[in-house]
Structures are given as structure tokens and as C-alpha cells.
């Protein structure tokens, strides 16, 4: 192990003693992780979780569910995450590999 790696390991160990172990986000799968990152911006983990759970409740978290959801439902979630647009969430859904390009809901 290099000197830098040892130092980093020590720093992370001390940080873990102060903050406790990091908790994984409440997501299922890679697409939900993308939504988790896109539903909020520069907010606390608690606020991000509130925004994500609101998105789950109001629209669902599958790409097709998001693409057919009312714009206001998505905005309700993203506003909780400190964002004024729904663009990042709907863009993620549109780019989901599970959707055929000619069959995208508008």
C-alpha cells in the first residue's frame, strides 16, 4: 500500500469515528440512483430523501411512469430538492436504455 493510500485510509477512519458509517441511499437499482442524484441539487441528504420519496409517491420511479406523469407532479418533487425544473428527471427517463426510441411517451 502506498503512503498516500495509508494516509487516506487513516483520514477516512477518523472521519468514520466522528460521523458514523455512511448510510446508502434508499434506492433500488441504477436508474433510481440516477433519479436520486437528479431530483435535488446542493441540499442535505434529508431534503434529497424527501424529494425522492415524493417523486416515488407522485409519479413512480420507472422511466415510463415518469414520462407519462403530469409535469406538476415531477415539479412538486424537484422543488422540494431545491430545483425549479423537472428537466433532469425527465431527461434521465428519456435516456433510459429500456425504452425504444420510437415509443417514447411525450
Mind sketching the topology for me?
Elements: H1 3-19, H2 30-38, H3 45-58, H4 63-68, H5 71-80, H6 87-94
Helix pairs in contact: 2-6, 3-5
Shape estimate:
elongated
Number of helices: 6
Report the β-strand fraction as a percent range: under 5%
The whole-number mean of residue pLDDT values reads: 89
Number of strands: 0
The arrangement of helices and strands along the chain is HHHHHH
Portion in helices: 55-70%
List keywords for this structure.
106 residues; mainly alpha; 6 helices; 0% strand
A few lines on this structure:
The chain is built from six helices and no strands. With 106 residues, the protein is mainly α. The protein has a domain at 30-103.
Would you give an account of this structure?
It is a single chain. This protein is mainly α and 106 residues long. It has a domain at 30-103. The chain has six helices and no strands. Helix 2 runs antiparallel to helix 6 and helix 3 (45-58) packs antiparallel against helix 5. The relative contact order is 0.13.
Amino acid at each position: 500500500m502506498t503512503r498516500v493510500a495509508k494516509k487516506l485510509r487513516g483520514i477516512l477512519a477518523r472521519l468514520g469515528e466522528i460521523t458514523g458509517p455512511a448510510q446508502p441511499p434508499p434506492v433500488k437499482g441504477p436508474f433510481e440512483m440516477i433519479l436520486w442524484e437528479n431530483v435535488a441539487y446542493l441540499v442535505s441528504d434529508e431534503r434529497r430523501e424527501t424529494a425522492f420519496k415524493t417523486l416515488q409517491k407522485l409519479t413512480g420511479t420507472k422511466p415510463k411512469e415518469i414520462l407519462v406523469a403530469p409535469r406538476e407532479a415531477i415539479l412538486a418533487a424537484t422543488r422540494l430538492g431545491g430545483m425549479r425544473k423537472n428537466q433532469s428527471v425527465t431527461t434521465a427517463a428519456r435516456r433510459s436504455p429500456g425504452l425504444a426510441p420510437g415509443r417514447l411517451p411525450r
